[in-house]
Design brief:
The complex is a heterodimer of chains A (328) and B (328). Chain A is globular, with a radius of gyration of 19 Å. The longest helix of chain A has 26 residues. Chain A is an alpha/beta fold and 328 residues long. Chain B has 328 residues and is α/β, with parallel strands linked by helices. In chain B, the strands form three sheets. Chain B has a seven-stranded mixed beta sheet with strand order 3-2-4-5-7-6-12, sandwiched between helices. In chain B, strand 10, helix 9 and strand 11 form a beta-alpha-beta unit. The termini of chain B are far apart. The chains are: A alpha/beta (328), B alpha/beta (328).
């Protein structure tokens, strides 16, 4: 793994990045708890993706760049500006949930305030949408870059190929990401695609493709920094394949112990990106274990407070069932 | 007033709106450049407004669907053309999962003001895949509007209203009418409402409800029957979804004899829903059963001329059905 100082980020920024990673993990754990105790009925998790997601998101300028995420991208959405309370209101289907005001299932992140565009559950429809957002930058001569993401399973959808092809033709300022955790629910990569990597699909459409280890913060950050700068400077799109692990079952309605061996699950726990990142932070002198414990305590308090606040928010009222079907 | 064809009226309406609002952009297969569409509806637009605002897309209908939504969320008014209504099928996911639900699923935070234009209808030796009335597939998707003009006047006013609408609008153009109809169209700015049926002809004996080519058959047949002393009320559905229930029900009540005409299959067409509405709201005003005149329940229109004629609802079939109903 590359050293953290090679990222060019200062100590403060690296510690901030760690807080994002840990907030993502702790918040997801809270979402699982809420599911298990029946306060909500669903969760789909990005545990194991957090380090890569933070390194990815930090390479953008969330105050102007657009993000069209997929359902595992919660931690990236936190970096983009969403708060723990925002996420919790989505999980609990509250009226003030910025993603969908309680209309969509949890984990369908969106926020008008933070340029995070709503997405559906029919996976990868956000790819063609992202080309429209990116083409808007070209048309309006604006310098925002658009990011859209999906998993390696969903990346096989026809609309993904259509969107990447169009982005290549128009040289759009658009970054495509495939977060490759090796599983499409229960289906492993051998049954998903025949290419060596997902990244090589970039050159197939006329733009660069990079595969990075999502647990390597510096490598991931620098790769994104380069492609985002290029996109902003008119050099066109790129595809980044982020190699990550899915530490949990596909969703709250799945049990991955049925199709993954005990050895595999145990091995994955040892290689948990969060633990590797913490080890690296200690070894490279950014934080001590005690300081991490203090940060963890602080984040847990933040999430507890956000949970209480979100739970106290009003549910959508039944009389709003037909609101905003049409403009008038 | 200027004499123009149905096709020229659509072209003129788009041109006026692109002049009025620089956020209007148009794209599709063969739409840009000097060709201006396989039927010529977008002719001259690329030259006048530039290749950024009027452009060709690769052969990717899902992409056309999603590109429009993405442009919509960043403030553009996209007009996406599907070269034939038969080719809309790969885009159905974008139309239903994204375009029609963007507003609802974000309670208006994100919206998709879009026009999807497409030529539909048979009688052009188009065979199974260039003749279909696919509007029924997208009918009944709250959030999406479907409209179709049946005269040059409506063609211009309706396309202008569709472009200005903040809703996604599917704009069906009957390809047989493109050059068949020619009429005086006002040069000045006017719009035709997207949610109103149009009583095209007044009469007290029978009510005929239709749209597109068959509506024009009904109008001619009504003139013929007038000579025989039968006066038909002829209603252009125009707003295919949501339906203008009030106008349709009133027209049914007025004569008590209703003929619904469509060139689509008999079962499962838009006329099936109109029949249900009339049965629900005007049954006790009726003097005869609701009659439907439609194509057979065979898949689409075959190519052989004998079979195409058999499938088509022509003027003679409409005339006979109207006379039969009047005599009931």
């Amino acid at each position: 793994m590359k050293q953290l100082k090679e990222s060019g980020l200062n100590k403060e920024q690296i510690i901030e990045a760690y807080k994002h990673v840990l907030r993502g993990r702790r918040l997801d754990e809270r979402l699982w708890q809420l599911t298990r105790i029946g306060k909500t009925s669903f969760n789909i998790s990005g545990q194991g993706h957090e380090v890569g997601q933070v390194a990815k998101a930090l390479a953008f300028e969330p105050e102007k760049d657009y993000f069209l995420p997929y359902y595992r991208d919660m931690t990236a959405c936190l970096v983009w500006g969403m708060t723990s309370k925002d996420i919790l209101m989505g999980s609990l289907a509250k009226e003030d949930d910025p993603s969908s005001h309680g209309r969509q299932m949890p984990n369908h992140y969106g926020s008008k305030e933070h340029n995070i565009v709503s997405h559906s559950s029919t996976v990868s429809t956000q790819f063609p949408l992202a080309t429209g957002v990116a083409y808007g930058a070209q048309l309006g001569k604006k310098d925002y870059v658009t990011l859209t993401t999906t998993g390696e399973g969903s990346a096989n959808q026809g609309e993904v190929q259509e969107a990447m092809n169009f982005a290549g033709v128009k040289k759009l300022p658009l970054i495509f990401v495939v977060e490759n955790n090796g599983y499409a629910i229960s289906v492993g990569i051998k049954e998903q695609y025949a290419n060596e990597t997902m990244a090589e699909r970039g050159p197939a459409y006329g733009f660069p493709g990079h595969r990075v280890d999502g647990n390597d913060f510096t490598e991931t950050y620098l790769t994104f920094k380069k492609v985002v700068d290029d996109a902003r400077n008119g050099k066109g799109p790129a595809l980044v394949e982020l190699m990550v692990s899915r530490l949990t079952s596909h969703s709250a309605d799945d049990d991955h112990t049925i199709y993954r061996s005990k050895e595999e699950l145990e091995d994955m726990k040892q290689k948990d990106g969060l633990l590797l990142f913490e080890k690296q932070l200690i070894e490279e002198g950014y934080l001590t274990r005690d300081e991490m414990t203090a940060i963890d305590k602080e984040l847990k308090a933040e999430i507890n407070k956000a949970t209480d606040e979100a739970e106290a928010m009003p549910d959508p009222t039944a009389d709003t069932i037909s609101d905003q079907v049409y403009a008038d | 007033m200027t004499m123009m064809t149905y096709l020229e009226a659509i072209n003129k309406g788009i041109e006026e709106e692109m002049t009025r609002d620089e956020k209007v952009v148009i794209f599709g297969e063969d739409v840009g450049g000097v060709k201006g569409g396989v039927f010529g509806v977008t002719k001259g637009l690329a030259e006048k407004f530039g290749d950024d605002r009027c452009f060709n897309t690769p052969l990717t209908e899902g992409q056309i669907g999603g590109l429009a939504v993405g442009l919509g969320v960043v403030g553009y008014r996209a007009i996406g053309e599907f070269q034939f209504a038969d080719y809309i099928l790969p885009a159905v996911n974008q139309l239903i999962s994204e375009a029609s639900r963007m507003r609802y699923r974000t309670k208006g935070d994100w919206t998709a003001p879009i026009v999807y234009r497409t030529p539909y209808g048979g009688g052009v030796r188009g065979g199974l895949y260039h003749s279909q009335s696919t509007e029924k597939i997208l009918f009944g998707q709250p959030g999406l509007r479907i409209v179709t003009p049946s005269s040059p006047y409506d063609a211009k006013g309706l396309i202008k209203a569709a472009i200005r609408s903040d809703d996604p609008v599917l704009f069906y153009e009957h390809k047989r009418l493109y050059r068949l109809l020619k009429a005086d169209v006002p040069e000045e700015d006017y719009v035709v409402p997207l949610d109103k049926a149009n009583v095209v002809r007044q009469g007290d004996d029978i009510t005929v409800i239709g749209y597109g080519m068959v509506l024009n058959h009904a109008l001619k047949a009504a003139e013929q029957l007038s000579k025989e002393g039968i006066e038909a009320e002829v209603v252009d559905v125009r707003s295919l979804y949501p339906l203008d229930k009030e106008t349709l029900v009133e027209a049914a009540k007025k004569t008590g004899k209703v003929l619904l005409v469509t060139e689509d299959n008999k079962e499962g067409s838009i006329m099936s829903e109109i029949a249900a509405i009339i049965a629900e709201e005007a049954l006790f005003y009726l003097d005869s059963p609701i009659k439907r005149l439609a194509g057979p329940d065979s898949p689409s229109m075959p190519y052989a001329i004998s079979l195409e004629r058999e499938f088509l609802v022509d003027e003679e079939k409409v005339l006979n059905a109207m006379r039969e109903l009047a005599e009931f």
